[in-house]
Protein backbone atom coordinates (compact mmCIF):
# COMPACT_ATOMS: atom_id res chain seq x y z
CA UNK A 1 0.00 0.00 0.00
CA UNK A 2 3.00 2.34 -0.14
CA UNK A 3 2.93 5.25 -2.57
CA UNK A 4 -0.46 4.46 -4.01
CA UNK A 5 -1.07 6.73 -6.97
CA UNK A 6 -4.23 8.46 -8.02
CA UNK A 7 -6.46 6.29 -10.26
CA UNK A 8 -4.86 3.08 -9.06
CA UNK A 9 -7.40 0.31 -8.48
CA UNK A 10 -7.68 -1.35 -5.07
CA UNK A 11 -9.32 -4.75 -5.46
CA UNK A 12 -11.65 -6.72 -3.20
CA UNK A 13 -12.40 -4.04 -0.62
CA UNK A 14 -15.20 -5.06 1.73
CA UNK A 15 -17.20 -2.03 2.86
CA UNK A 16 -17.74 -2.49 6.57
CA UNK A 17 -19.62 0.57 7.80
CA UNK A 18 -21.20 3.89 6.89
CA UNK A 19 -19.07 7.00 7.19
CA UNK A 20 -19.73 10.72 7.30
CA UNK A 21 -21.43 12.47 4.38
CA UNK A 22 -22.85 9.28 2.91
CA UNK A 23 -19.62 7.40 2.15
CA UNK A 24 -18.79 3.83 3.13
CA UNK A 25 -15.66 2.69 4.94
CA UNK A 26 -13.55 -0.41 4.37
CA UNK A 27 -10.05 -1.72 5.04
CA UNK A 28 -7.21 -2.98 2.88
CA UNK A 29 -5.46 -6.24 3.75
CA UNK A 30 -2.76 -4.10 5.37
CA UNK A 31 -5.37 -2.43 7.58
CA UNK A 32 -5.44 0.98 5.92
CA UNK A 33 -8.81 2.73 5.98
CA UNK A 34 -10.52 3.16 2.60
CA UNK A 35 -13.26 5.80 2.31
CA UNK A 36 -15.48 4.96 -0.65
CA UNK A 37 -18.22 6.78 -2.53
CA UNK A 38 -20.70 4.86 -4.68
CA UNK A 39 -20.91 1.82 -2.46
CA UNK A 40 -23.11 0.45 0.30
CA UNK A 41 -21.88 -1.08 3.58
CA UNK A 42 -21.64 -4.81 2.94
CA UNK A 43 -20.57 -4.48 -0.71
CA UNK A 44 -17.35 -6.07 -1.98
CA UNK A 45 -15.91 -3.56 -4.45
CA UNK A 46 -12.96 -2.51 -6.53
CA UNK A 47 -12.00 1.08 -5.75
CA UNK A 48 -10.34 3.73 -7.92
CA UNK A 49 -8.04 5.81 -5.71
CA UNK A 50 -8.67 9.56 -5.79
CA UNK A 51 -6.57 10.59 -2.81
CA UNK A 52 -3.96 8.68 -0.81
CA UNK A 53 -2.67 9.69 2.61
CA UNK A 54 -0.43 7.92 5.08
CA UNK A 55 -3.30 6.47 7.10
CA UNK A 56 -6.26 6.43 4.69
CA UNK A 57 -7.32 6.35 1.07
CA UNK A 58 -10.29 8.04 -0.61
CA UNK A 59 -11.82 6.64 -3.76
CA UNK A 60 -14.91 5.59 -5.67
CA UNK A 61 -16.37 2.16 -6.27
CA UNK A 62 -15.85 1.30 -9.95
CA UNK A 63 -16.97 -2.32 -9.82
CA UNK A 64 -19.25 -4.12 -7.38
CA UNK A 65 -18.16 -7.75 -6.99
CA UNK A 66 -20.73 -8.71 -4.35
CA UNK A 67 -23.87 -6.78 -3.54
CA UNK A 68 -24.73 -6.02 0.06
CA UNK A 69 -27.92 -7.40 1.56
CA UNK A 70 -28.53 -3.82 2.73
CA UNK A 71 -29.14 -2.72 -0.87
CA UNK A 72 -32.53 -1.90 -2.37
CA UNK A 73 -33.50 -0.72 -5.84
CA UNK A 74 -33.41 3.10 -6.00
CA UNK A 75 -36.83 4.57 -6.64
CA UNK A 76 -35.71 7.58 -8.69
CA UNK A 77 -34.35 7.46 -12.25
CA UNK A 78 -31.90 10.25 -11.34
CA UNK A 79 -30.24 8.32 -8.50
CA UNK A 80 -26.46 8.39 -8.79
CA UNK A 81 -26.42 11.66 -10.73
CA UNK A 82 -28.55 13.84 -8.47
CA UNK A 83 -27.01 14.47 -5.07
CA UNK A 84 -30.31 14.78 -3.22
CA UNK A 85 -30.91 11.19 -2.05
CA UNK A 86 -27.55 9.46 -1.77
CA UNK A 87 -28.90 6.67 0.43
CA UNK A 88 -31.88 5.76 -1.73
CA UNK A 89 -30.20 2.43 -2.51
CA UNK A 90 -30.07 1.45 1.18
CA UNK A 91 -33.03 -0.14 2.98
CA UNK A 92 -34.60 2.41 5.32
CA UNK A 93 -34.18 0.21 8.40
CA UNK A 94 -30.44 0.09 7.70
CA UNK A 95 -30.33 3.85 7.11
CA UNK A 96 -31.69 4.27 10.62
CA UNK A 97 -29.12 1.82 12.00
CA UNK A 98 -26.25 3.69 10.35
CA UNK A 99 -27.49 7.07 11.58
CA UNK A 100 -28.10 5.79 15.11
CA UNK A 101 -24.64 4.23 15.27
CA UNK A 102 -22.97 7.37 13.91
CA UNK A 103 -24.51 9.50 16.66
CA UNK A 104 -23.65 7.04 19.42
CA UNK A 105 -20.08 6.58 18.17
CA UNK A 106 -19.51 10.34 17.93
CA UNK A 107 -20.81 10.96 21.44
CA UNK A 108 -18.62 8.19 22.86
CA UNK A 109 -15.47 8.82 20.82
CA UNK A 110 -15.45 12.63 20.56
CA UNK A 111 -17.49 13.40 23.65
CA UNK A 112 -15.52 11.03 25.82
CA UNK A 113 -18.62 9.75 27.63
CA UNK A 114 -20.00 6.23 27.71
CA UNK A 115 -22.50 5.89 30.54
CA UNK A 116 -25.74 7.39 29.22
CA UNK A 117 -29.15 6.22 28.06
CA UNK A 118 -29.46 5.67 24.32
CA UNK A 119 -33.03 5.98 23.08
CA UNK A 120 -33.53 4.22 19.71
CA UNK A 121 -33.58 6.58 16.75
CA UNK A 122 -36.93 8.15 15.91
CA UNK A 123 -37.58 7.22 12.29
CA UNK A 124 -39.70 9.20 9.87
CA UNK A 125 -43.21 7.95 9.15
CA UNK A 126 -42.77 9.21 5.59
CA UNK A 127 -39.60 8.14 3.78
CA UNK A 128 -40.54 10.03 0.61
CA UNK A 129 -42.47 13.23 -0.14
CA UNK A 130 -41.55 14.64 3.27
CA UNK A 131 -40.12 18.04 2.30
CA UNK A 132 -42.28 21.17 2.36
CA UNK A 133 -39.79 23.31 0.44
CA UNK A 134 -37.80 22.68 -2.74
CA UNK A 135 -35.60 24.95 -4.82
CA UNK A 136 -34.82 24.36 -8.49
CA UNK A 137 -32.49 26.15 -10.91
CA UNK A 138 -32.90 27.03 -14.58
CA UNK A 139 -30.01 26.53 -17.01
CA UNK A 140 -29.60 26.81 -20.77
CA UNK A 141 -26.88 24.11 -20.73
CA UNK A 142 -28.24 21.03 -19.02
CA UNK A 143 -26.02 18.29 -17.69
CA UNK A 144 -25.41 15.53 -20.24
CA UNK A 145 -24.67 11.98 -19.10
CA UNK A 146 -21.59 10.18 -20.36
CA UNK A 147 -23.86 8.00 -22.50
CA UNK A 148 -25.44 11.03 -24.13
CA UNK A 149 -22.05 12.58 -24.85
CA UNK A 150 -20.60 9.38 -26.35
CA UNK A 151 -23.68 8.74 -28.50
CA UNK A 152 -23.04 11.99 -30.41
CA UNK A 153 -26.78 12.40 -30.97
CA UNK A 154 -28.39 15.79 -31.41
CA UNK A 155 -30.41 16.34 -28.26
CA UNK A 156 -32.01 19.56 -29.43
CA UNK A 157 -33.13 21.77 -26.57
CA UNK A 158 -30.50 22.02 -23.83
CA UNK A 159 -32.64 23.86 -21.28
CA UNK A 160 -32.89 22.39 -17.79
CA UNK A 161 -34.91 22.95 -14.64
CA UNK A 162 -33.68 20.97 -11.68
CA UNK A 163 -30.79 20.49 -9.26
CA UNK A 164 -27.12 21.37 -9.33
CA UNK A 165 -24.81 18.43 -10.02
CA UNK A 166 -22.81 17.80 -6.80
CA UNK A 167 -19.53 19.70 -6.95
CA UNK A 168 -20.43 21.39 -10.25
CA UNK A 169 -22.32 24.58 -9.52
CA UNK A 170 -22.72 25.55 -13.19
CA UNK A 171 -24.21 22.17 -14.19
CA UNK A 172 -27.95 21.54 -13.78
CA UNK A 173 -29.65 18.14 -13.91
CA UNK A 174 -32.96 18.38 -15.77
CA UNK A 175 -35.39 16.69 -13.40
CA UNK A 176 -38.03 14.38 -14.82
CA UNK A 177 -39.21 13.28 -11.39
CA UNK A 178 -38.47 13.89 -7.72
CA UNK A 179 -39.77 12.01 -4.70
CA UNK A 180 -38.91 14.55 -2.01
CA UNK A 181 -41.95 16.84 -2.21
CA UNK A 182 -45.51 15.73 -2.78
CA UNK A 183 -47.45 16.70 -5.85
CA UNK A 184 -48.28 19.06 -7.43
CA UNK A 185 -44.56 19.86 -7.00
CA UNK A 186 -43.54 17.70 -9.97
CA UNK A 187 -46.47 18.90 -12.06
CA UNK A 188 -45.72 22.58 -11.38
CA UNK A 189 -42.02 22.19 -12.20
CA UNK A 190 -42.70 20.24 -15.40
CA UNK A 191 -45.46 22.65 -16.46
CA UNK A 192 -43.15 25.64 -15.97
CA UNK A 193 -40.41 23.95 -18.02
CA UNK A 194 -42.80 23.00 -20.83
CA UNK A 195 -44.39 26.45 -20.99
CA UNK A 196 -41.03 28.20 -20.96
CA UNK A 197 -39.59 26.07 -23.77
CA UNK A 198 -42.72 26.33 -25.92
CA UNK A 199 -42.84 30.10 -25.49
CA UNK A 200 -39.15 30.72 -26.04
CA UNK A 201 -38.39 32.06 -22.56
CA UNK A 202 -34.65 32.24 -21.94
CA UNK A 203 -33.19 29.97 -19.27
CA UNK A 204 -30.37 31.41 -17.17
CA UNK A 205 -26.81 31.25 -18.52
CA UNK A 206 -24.55 31.18 -15.46
CA UNK A 207 -21.34 31.79 -17.42
CA UNK A 208 -22.61 34.65 -19.57
CA UNK A 209 -24.76 36.02 -16.72
CA UNK A 210 -27.77 36.37 -18.99
CA UNK A 211 -31.26 35.01 -19.57
CA UNK A 212 -34.66 35.44 -17.93
CA UNK A 213 -35.70 32.49 -15.74
CA UNK A 214 -33.25 31.85 -12.89
CA UNK A 215 -34.71 29.83 -9.98
CA UNK A 216 -38.01 28.34 -8.86
CA UNK A 217 -38.93 27.69 -5.23
CA UNK A 218 -41.99 25.67 -4.25
CA UNK A 219 -43.21 25.79 -0.66
CA UNK A 220 -46.27 24.20 0.94
CA UNK A 221 -47.95 24.06 4.33
CA UNK A 222 -49.66 21.10 5.99
CA UNK A 223 -53.05 22.29 4.71
CA UNK A 224 -52.01 21.79 1.09
CA UNK A 225 -51.56 25.48 0.27
CA UNK A 226 -48.63 26.41 -1.97
CA UNK A 227 -46.25 29.32 -2.42
CA UNK A 228 -44.35 29.78 -5.68
CA UNK A 229 -41.28 32.02 -5.86
CA UNK A 230 -39.47 32.88 -9.08
CA UNK A 231 -36.08 34.52 -9.31
CA UNK A 232 -35.76 36.32 -12.65
CA UNK A 233 -32.44 37.59 -13.95
CA UNK A 234 -34.17 40.59 -15.53
CA UNK A 235 -37.64 42.03 -15.83
CA UNK A 236 -39.67 41.05 -18.88
CA UNK A 237 -43.08 42.15 -17.69
CA UNK A 238 -45.29 40.88 -20.49
CA UNK A 239 -43.65 37.43 -20.51
CA UNK A 240 -43.66 37.28 -16.72
CA UNK A 241 -47.38 38.05 -16.44
CA UNK A 242 -48.31 35.46 -19.06
CA UNK A 243 -46.24 32.79 -17.28
CA UNK A 244 -47.67 33.62 -13.87
CA UNK A 245 -51.27 33.71 -15.14
CA UNK A 246 -50.74 30.35 -16.84
CA UNK A 247 -49.54 28.83 -13.56
CA UNK A 248 -52.37 30.28 -11.49
CA UNK A 249 -54.96 29.04 -13.97
CA UNK A 250 -53.39 25.57 -14.04
CA UNK A 251 -52.85 25.05 -10.30
CA UNK A 252 -55.57 26.33 -7.95
CA UNK A 253 -53.51 25.01 -5.00
CA UNK A 254 -51.21 28.04 -5.36
CA UNK A 255 -52.13 30.35 -2.49
CA UNK A 256 -49.53 33.00 -3.27
CA UNK A 257 -47.06 33.73 -6.07
CA UNK A 258 -44.07 36.00 -5.53
CA UNK A 259 -40.98 36.97 -7.50
CA UNK A 260 -37.67 38.83 -7.33
CA UNK A 261 -35.40 40.34 -9.95
CA UNK A 262 -31.87 39.06 -9.33
CA UNK A 263 -28.98 40.26 -11.53
CA UNK A 264 -26.38 39.32 -8.88
CA UNK A 265 -23.68 36.71 -9.18
CA UNK A 266 -25.42 34.38 -6.70
CA UNK A 267 -28.91 33.01 -6.06
CA UNK A 268 -29.30 34.14 -2.44
CA UNK A 269 -32.71 35.76 -1.91
CA UNK A 270 -32.03 37.32 1.49
CA UNK A 271 -30.91 40.69 0.14
CA UNK A 272 -33.52 40.79 -2.65
CA UNK A 273 -36.75 42.76 -2.81
CA UNK A 274 -39.58 40.21 -2.95
CA UNK A 275 -42.62 41.35 -4.92
CA UNK A 276 -46.06 39.77 -4.57
CA UNK A 277 -47.98 39.00 -7.75
CA UNK A 278 -50.81 36.97 -6.22
CA UNK A 279 -52.05 36.34 -2.68
CA UNK A 280 -50.62 37.65 0.58
CA UNK A 281 -46.99 36.77 -0.04
CA UNK A 282 -46.88 34.24 2.80
CA UNK A 283 -48.40 31.03 4.16
CA UNK A 284 -49.48 30.08 7.67
CA UNK A 285 -48.42 26.86 9.38
CA UNK A 286 -49.80 25.41 12.60
CA UNK A 287 -48.04 23.14 15.08
CA UNK A 288 -49.92 21.86 18.12
CA UNK A 289 -52.06 24.99 18.33
CA UNK A 290 -49.29 27.46 17.51
CA UNK A 291 -49.42 29.54 14.35
CA UNK A 292 -46.41 30.54 12.26
CA UNK A 293 -46.24 32.97 9.35
CA UNK A 294 -43.92 31.71 6.61
CA UNK A 295 -42.65 34.06 3.94
CA UNK A 296 -40.30 33.49 0.99
CA UNK A 297 -37.22 34.18 3.15
CA UNK A 298 -38.41 32.40 6.31
CA UNK A 299 -36.52 29.50 7.81
CA UNK A 300 -38.85 26.67 8.77
CA UNK A 301 -38.03 23.00 9.22
CA UNK A 302 -38.50 21.29 5.85
CA UNK A 303 -39.91 18.04 7.30
CA UNK A 304 -43.04 19.26 9.08
CA UNK A 305 -44.08 15.99 10.75
CA UNK A 306 -40.62 15.15 12.06
CA UNK A 307 -40.04 18.74 13.16
CA UNK A 308 -43.16 18.48 15.27
CA UNK A 309 -41.84 15.26 16.82
CA UNK A 310 -38.46 16.95 17.43
CA UNK A 311 -40.14 19.84 19.26
CA UNK A 312 -42.32 17.50 21.30
CA UNK A 313 -39.27 15.50 22.40
CA UNK A 314 -37.35 18.70 23.18
CA UNK A 315 -40.21 19.81 25.44
CA UNK A 316 -40.28 16.36 27.02
CA UNK A 317 -36.52 16.50 27.75
CA UNK A 318 -36.92 19.99 29.26
CA UNK A 319 -39.45 18.72 31.85
CA UNK A 320 -41.02 22.14 32.32
CA UNK A 321 -43.56 22.68 35.09
CA UNK A 322 -44.51 26.29 34.40
CA UNK A 323 -42.23 28.08 36.86
CA UNK A 324 -38.85 27.81 35.14
CA UNK A 325 -36.90 30.42 33.19
CA UNK A 326 -35.73 28.99 29.86
CA UNK A 327 -32.93 30.27 27.60
CA UNK A 328 -33.21 29.28 23.93
CA UNK A 329 -29.88 29.83 22.18
CA UNK A 330 -29.77 30.01 18.38
CA UNK A 331 -33.53 30.44 18.49
CA UNK A 332 -33.95 31.22 14.78
CA UNK A 333 -37.52 32.38 14.22
CA UNK A 334 -38.36 31.27 17.75
CA UNK A 335 -40.13 28.04 16.87
CA UNK A 336 -38.78 26.01 19.80
CA UNK A 337 -39.04 29.04 22.10
CA UNK A 338 -42.73 29.44 21.32
CA UNK A 339 -43.31 25.71 21.60
CA UNK A 340 -41.95 25.52 25.15
CA UNK A 341 -43.20 28.96 26.30
CA UNK A 342 -46.66 27.65 27.18
CA UNK A 343 -45.01 25.44 29.81
CA UNK A 344 -42.47 27.96 31.13
CA UNK A 345 -42.41 31.05 33.33
CA UNK A 346 -40.35 32.99 30.79
CA UNK A 347 -38.34 32.19 27.66
CA UNK A 348 -35.36 34.25 26.46
CA UNK A 349 -34.26 33.63 22.87
CA UNK A 350 -31.05 34.77 21.17
CA UNK A 351 -30.30 34.62 17.44
CA UNK A 352 -27.73 36.23 15.13
CA UNK A 353 -30.10 37.20 12.31
CA UNK A 354 -32.24 40.29 12.98
CA UNK A 355 -34.89 39.26 10.44
CA UNK A 356 -35.32 35.94 12.25
CA UNK A 357 -35.78 37.73 15.58
CA UNK A 358 -38.34 40.05 13.98
CA UNK A 359 -40.24 36.94 12.88
CA UNK A 360 -39.94 35.41 16.37
CA UNK A 361 -41.45 38.54 17.94
CA UNK A 362 -44.23 38.54 15.34
CA UNK A 363 -44.97 34.87 16.02
CA UNK A 364 -45.13 35.47 19.77
CA UNK A 365 -47.67 38.25 19.20
CA UNK A 366 -49.59 36.07 16.75
CA UNK A 367 -49.85 33.34 19.39
CA UNK A 368 -50.61 35.67 22.30
CA UNK A 369 -47.44 34.72 24.18
CA UNK A 370 -46.50 37.39 26.73
CA UNK A 371 -43.64 35.49 28.36
CA UNK A 372 -41.02 35.56 25.57
CA UNK A 373 -38.15 37.99 24.99
CA UNK A 374 -35.87 37.89 21.96
CA UNK A 375 -32.45 39.41 21.24
CA UNK A 376 -30.52 39.67 17.97
CA UNK A 377 -26.75 39.60 17.61
CA UNK A 378 -23.71 37.37 17.36
CA UNK A 379 -24.16 34.76 20.06
CA UNK A 380 -20.70 35.05 21.59
CA UNK A 381 -21.06 38.83 21.80
CA UNK A 382 -24.66 39.06 23.06
CA UNK A 383 -24.52 36.13 25.48
CA UNK A 384 -21.83 37.72 27.66
CA UNK A 385 -21.25 38.52 31.34
CA UNK A 386 -23.32 41.70 31.16
CA UNK A 387 -26.22 39.76 29.66
CA UNK A 388 -26.11 37.23 32.49
CA UNK A 389 -26.03 40.01 35.08
CA UNK A 390 -29.07 41.77 33.60
CA UNK A 391 -31.29 38.74 33.06
CA UNK A 392 -32.75 36.10 35.36
CA UNK A 393 -30.81 32.89 35.85
CA UNK A 394 -31.87 30.07 33.57
CA UNK A 395 -33.31 26.92 35.08
CA UNK A 396 -33.31 25.21 31.69
CA UNK A 397 -31.18 26.02 28.65
CA UNK A 398 -32.07 24.81 25.16
CA UNK A 399 -29.49 25.20 22.42
CA UNK A 400 -29.87 24.38 18.72
CA UNK A 401 -26.72 25.69 17.00
CA UNK A 402 -25.73 25.41 13.32
CA UNK A 403 -23.56 22.54 12.07
CA UNK A 404 -20.38 24.13 13.43
CA UNK A 405 -21.72 23.78 16.96
CA UNK A 406 -21.25 26.37 19.69
CA UNK A 407 -18.36 28.82 19.92
CA UNK A 408 -16.12 28.01 22.89
CA UNK A 409 -16.99 31.38 24.47
CA UNK A 410 -20.67 30.40 24.35
CA UNK A 411 -19.90 27.12 26.10
CA UNK A 412 -17.97 29.04 28.76
CA UNK A 413 -20.94 31.36 29.31
CA UNK A 414 -23.29 28.39 29.66
CA UNK A 415 -21.04 27.04 32.40
CA UNK A 416 -21.17 30.45 34.13
CA UNK A 417 -24.95 30.55 33.78
CA UNK A 418 -25.06 27.08 35.31
CA UNK A 419 -28.62 26.00 34.43
CA UNK A 420 -29.91 22.86 36.11
CA UNK A 421 -30.76 21.25 32.78
CA UNK A 422 -29.43 21.59 29.22
CA UNK A 423 -31.28 20.27 26.19
CA UNK A 424 -28.87 20.27 23.25
CA UNK A 425 -30.47 19.85 19.81
CA UNK A 426 -27.98 19.30 17.01
CA UNK A 427 -27.80 18.60 13.28
CA UNK A 428 -24.16 17.51 13.66
CA UNK A 429 -23.44 15.00 16.39
CA UNK A 430 -19.67 15.41 15.94
CA UNK A 431 -19.65 19.07 16.98
CA UNK A 432 -22.33 18.34 19.56
CA UNK A 433 -20.05 15.69 21.07
CA UNK A 434 -17.15 18.17 21.10
CA UNK A 435 -19.27 20.66 23.04
CA UNK A 436 -20.48 17.97 25.45
CA UNK A 437 -16.83 17.11 26.16
CA UNK A 438 -16.21 20.77 27.09
CA UNK A 439 -19.03 20.61 29.65
CA UNK A 440 -18.60 17.12 31.08
CA UNK A 441 -16.77 18.27 34.22
CA UNK A 442 -19.88 20.19 35.26
CA UNK A 443 -22.66 18.30 33.48
CA UNK A 444 -23.65 14.67 33.18
CA UNK A 445 -24.94 13.42 29.85
CA UNK A 446 -28.11 11.57 30.83
CA UNK A 447 -29.64 10.48 27.53
CA UNK A 448 -29.69 11.03 23.79
CA UNK A 449 -32.35 10.61 21.11
CA UNK A 450 -31.36 10.62 17.43
CA UNK A 451 -34.12 11.87 15.11
CA UNK A 452 -34.25 11.18 11.38
CA UNK A 453 -35.41 14.37 9.68
CA UNK A 454 -34.10 13.52 6.20
CA UNK A 455 -34.75 9.95 4.97
CA UNK A 456 -32.65 8.78 1.99
CA UNK A 457 -29.76 11.00 3.15
CA UNK A 458 -26.99 10.58 5.73
CA UNK A 459 -28.15 13.59 7.76
CA UNK A 460 -29.41 13.01 11.31
CA UNK A 461 -30.46 15.22 14.23
CA UNK A 462 -29.78 14.40 17.87
CA UNK A 463 -31.28 15.60 21.15
CA UNK A 464 -29.09 15.32 24.24
CA UNK A 465 -30.06 15.92 27.87
CA UNK A 466 -27.41 17.12 30.32
CA UNK A 467 -27.97 17.64 34.04
CA UNK A 468 -25.81 19.70 36.37
CA UNK A 469 -23.70 17.51 38.62
Automatic annotation (TrEMBL):
> Matching CDD domains, A to Z?
AdoMet_MTases
* Keywords assigned: Methyltransferase, S-adenosyl-L-methionine, Transferase
Active site per the UniProt annotation? 427 (nucleophile), 427
**Segments traversing the membrane:** none
Domain TRAM positions:
3-63
* Highest taxon in the source lineage: Bacteria
Return the protein name.
Answer: 23S rRNA m(5)U-1939 methyltransferase
Organism field: Epilithonimonas mollis
